[in-house]
Design goal:
The protein is mainly alpha-helical and 54 residues long. It is built from four helices and no strands. The chain has a single domain, classed as Arc Repressor Mutant, subunit A, CATH 1.10.10. 69% of the residues lie in helices and 0% in strands.
């Protein structure tokens, strides 16, 4: 999900690209954000990039 969110796309667009519901995408992004200890999904993407994960 973070890779799909990396370009700043809204949840609805990410959901369309991943063939998932917007609620599922929000849950996945929320989980990734929490696990990384980031403030929001944009910060989570930056942190994941710095670690070479995205």
């Amino acid at each position: 999900m973070l890779e799909l969110a990396a370009d700043g796309a809204p949840v609805a667009e990410i959901a369309r690209r991943a063939a998932l519901s917007p609620g599922t995408v929000r849950n996945y992004l929320s989980s990734a954000t929490a696990k990384l200890g980031a403030e929001n999904r944009h910060a989570a993407v930056r942190l994941a990039r710095s670690k070479g994960w995205v």
